[in-house]
Amino acid sequence: MTRRGLSLCQGLTSLRRKMESRRTEWAFLVILLVLSRVVKVHAVSYRVRPESVAVREGQTATLRCAFIGLTAQSVVFWEGPPNFAVISTGREVDPRYTRHRITGDPSRGEYHLEIKDVNLLEEGGYRCSTLGLTEKAEVTLNVVVPMKTPPKITGRDVTFTARQPMTLTCMATDGNPLPRLRWFNGTKLLQQTPENAMAEVVSSVSLDLVIPEVARWDHGKNVTCVADQGYPDLTTTMASSTILNVHYSPIVRSRRQTIRATEGETIDLSCDVDSNPPADVSWKKIDGSIPGNAEIRGNALHLPKLSRSAAGAYKCLADNGILPSGEGSITLIVLYPPRITSGFEDKTSALAGGEGFSLSCEAEGYPKPRIRWRRKGTKLYFDNPLQFTQIDYDMEGDYECVASNGQIRNAVRQTFVDVIGKPYINTVSLKVSVRSGDTARLVCEILSDPLPEETRWLRRGPGQQDKPVTASQRPGIRQEERTSSRGVTNTLVISHVGRSDGGVYVCETTNTFGTFQREFSMDVKATNTQAVVIASVTVIVLLILFATIFVCIAKRTGLSERVRREKASSPDLTLPRALPPIPSYMVPVGSDDVDDLELQDFKGTLKPRPPPRTDLEPYSIGLSYPSLMHPLPPYSTVERQRPDGEDNMVDSPYLEDPWEMEGFVVPPSLPPKNRADKRINAITQC
């Protein structure tokens, strides 16, 4: 058959298929029309609305669909590819769909479409519907076919030169759907496929990685093309990687710009060369020639047994054929190391408590070395010579004389300063506070060389008398001793401490050179129970005292109020004794009595107006009108005229004339003895 005949045949076949599809659609519409006439349509809605799903090729796909409001006459239709052809009517499936079936409980309105062994022909749109639906749900079944091979990278074997453009292409040709491509450098995203690039149906997808101008630091980069189909539960991502190969000119760096070395040493002058491909390295000395025994070993210049003539500036030259070539420089300085010439011994003894210890150190070298002393193992330096004004055990140890002349190796010589002498107690805490009933520990730290021959504890009593503290005095007393390289730690332990155990204790230690003592003070505090009892008793006593004072004040206050009430309610102004004669200035002219006293309105009550104060003797007012008398304060000082004509004077603390207390007024005619008795009686009653 010719190509033209074959094309005509294919066209007729396509036309026949379209006519059959049209015939099927017309038949479906006729059926729907008849059913709508015959069956009374009820309100129907989705109970389980269909949703789009993705299934891996060869697996079983299930499209769920369920309704509410179906009747016995209701018919459910499933339509699908191609062009939403009818797959099932009710629970009956078209015979052409051999791998399709309807599942679910019809009484619950369930019409789930199940497709076994899914292939790409089943991929497309599906619709579950029935009469009476206002909206038909359309869903998509995606059939996923995993990629069989990772994406391919084009240009991975190409060598690029610095400052030139570079392009790498990543392509994927299999899988459904086609994957999305992304370029990574490690975890850094470099480039990716646009979102709308997969809208068209194509047989492959590709992505270019473009660098307009590569640089030397791009050499060795690991770039990766990752292909992802977008369904992590059904497929896995696949990737391809390549390492960039970039050629660039040499870059030379010297590890040290200046090198100081000691004469006679063997050193290497080296430079680091960064280039691709590798460069050839050569050395050159400025203002002179390289020593005859020098050797070039790779990127280093080997100089054995340095001499002073080897000092100078050197250049490292590198060339790999890509311009420009690289160059670096190093300066070599040859120095003489310091050497200590002093002849001090490895061990020097000093007496504890002594004065004027000195140790000198001498050294030679070039440049002239600086000489210092330091305590071994520390960074604490002392000037030379090493001097101590007062020697104690803390100064014992290893000391080093350090001679340095710049950045070269230091010269060090060591000596041990051995401090010997009588013991010394180095304890910091000399006061111990402990509660009654607890255990007390008095720690005596002893520095001694030689070690103490004897250490004992004493208790200081009255009159500065010291008595030994031993276990025989009472149970619970013991001594614990621990020896170290510097001395002894002796601890006095007292269990179940009581109040009587407090006081001053003395730690006494002795060796060949003498004896040393240190006082310890121990304070025994009462327990919490004792403190609570004492506090409770104190509170009770204070409450009783306050109550007594309050009762006394209340009684006194009530008595005074009662006396005042009795005075106010008394019908007359009688006194417990005879009144003195009324002064002449208060008697009206031509009258022999006081019936014509002037009255005044005082806050709504008529009261006698007090007479004018024409003299300085207030007793007259008090005698005539006791309620108007202002009592004089006790222990006051009043200046008056004595009756017998004596000079004015100050009376203290009692008034001789007049005198008043609690309403009693004593006239001047009373004898002094009676007035004193009256005062005593009044005070006793109060």
TrEMBL record:
Q: Which InterPro entries match?
A: CD80_C2-set, Cell_adhesion_signaling, Ig-like_dom, Ig-like_dom_sf, Ig-like_fold, Ig_sub, Ig_sub2, Ig_V-set
GO cellular component labels: cell-cell junction; plasma membrane
Q: Which UniProt keywords apply?
A: Disulfide bond, Glycoprotein, Immunoglobulin domain, Membrane, Transmembrane, Transmembrane helix
- GO BP term, example: cell-cell adhesion
The membrane-spanning stretches of this chain are 531-554
> Which cell locations does it reside in?
Membrane
| Membrane topology type | Single-pass type I membrane protein
Stretches for region Disordered? 459-486
Q: Ig-like domain location, by residue?
A: 36-140, 151-241, 250-331, 338-417, 423-521
Q: Which GO terms describe its molecular function?
A: cell adhesion molecule binding
PANTHER family per the UniProt record, alphabetical: MAM DOMAIN-CONTAINING GLYCOSYLPHOSPHATIDYLINOSITOL ANCHOR PROTEIN 1 (PTHR11640:SF164), NEPHRIN (PTHR11640)
Official protein name in the record: Basement membrane-specific heparan sulfate proteoglycan core protein-like
- Species this chain originates from: Branchiostoma belcheri (Amphioxus)
